Amino acid sequence: MVGVGPPVCAGQGDSHPLMAAAGGPGPTCVLGIDLGTTSVKAALVTGTERALAQSCSRETLAHSDSLEAGPQGMEQDVQKIIRALNECLAALPQQQLQRVTHIGISGQMHGVVFWKSDKGCKWSESGTGPAFEPDKVSHLVTWQDGRCSPTFLSSLPLPQSHVSLATGFGCATVYWYLKNSPDFLKAYDAAGTIQDYVVAMLCDLKKPLMSVQNAASWGYFNCRSKSWNTDILKKSSFPVHLLPEVGDPGSIAGRTTCAWHGIPKGAKVGIALGDFQCSVYSCLTERTDAVLNVSTSAQLTISMPLGFQPPEAPDPSSAITYFPYFNGDYLAVAASLNGGNVLATFVGMVAQWTQELGLQVQESAIYPRIIQAALAQKHSKLSVHPTIFGERHLPEQLASVTSIGASELSLGHVTRALCRGIVENLCSMLPVQHLEDTGVRRILGSGSALARNEVLKQEVERIFPFPVVYGKDVDAAVGAAMVMFHSK
Q1: Alpha carbon of 460 to those of 10, 250, 292: distances in Å?
Q2: In the predicted model, is pLDDT for residue 282 greater than 60?
Q3: Are 107 and 193 within 8 A, CB to CB?
Q4: Which of 175, 287, 363, 481 is most deeply packed, by most CB within 10 A?
């Protein structure tokens, strides 16, 4: 892994205190959990080869209307998230769960959930052993929440952080409640991301513990000093008692206080991590690799040189964001809002046009046909700037099509140009020259949109002057487990 020593199987050897509980000598397991935006995934990883033994995924179906923020709000019911988590664990083999010595947990970043520290959950017996359910817990206000308008954000004090504040960030959401619904906050004395909540419940932490990765994603956190902007926050009456303690990613937050779905009491639980960092960790093996992920959105990620420190203040016009990684390292990320969702919108448009012409074609039938048509057109002078969803650094800049010639209006030409535009847009955010300067030698291609689109692959290979390797798919749950292999 990047900047990390050779992998060692967590808790290997007969002397491990959990061995008796784990049914005697045998391969110990590490459990990785990812609490994503739409689904929960649990992965059991075993042995020195870090082999994926079992995994299970469940849709959370947790979207919930916001009483305070109305249509701008984006909230999730924590009961439903934990129910999906319990279903995942119940579906994994008991024999292997009993051999779990370490648990790594990642999840969606930026969001915030509030709870009462002494009444955060209720433990009860389930079919597969003890499990917890949320008790005095708020909804999760997610990273997609839109209640903090640009005007509201500009009224807040300027953070001392390398990350620009945005709606959906934990501290911005707390400020919103402070201004619009102060009584709401009085009911709680603890807060964190959804993954911090789960760690706090498993280890019975009176004060939540948060990794630098998630703290940076909340805003008002200085990564250099690894501390909250407490002075700035106190001056504006921010409830600083809600801020979690902060620790290093990869460290241990505590131990399970009782058995959990067959996992023995006393299993070590890592401090909760960011899903983005864990996704990268699951596939990035060399510093000279760049990770290109195209799923709904698209990201191009590289490791920054050892000792790199982000700038003191953010550059709002910059397309690159620096994410704290592991062992003090940083990732530079060009995170585009335009990826597979652009192709999906294009397919939807074609389907709508055919319907308006009185014809009926399923979207599922259109996708393979436009890819086939584009494979027949190796070149297209047509130029598509595909940013129909804007970009965080250029929210006003929408899509455009130029160099339209009469001979290049076929579906094949347009699809080819669209795929090229998606890759070129990412390249404009993190140019090839920058990749070469930082020593990149290989591109790791991943993500659902890239995996099933041969045209997109061709354009990636045409635009990047490096070998491209596919199939090393990103998996945050596996990444969270792998981090625990290196934990002390």
Answers
A1: 38, 33, 9
A2: yes
A3: yes
A4: 481
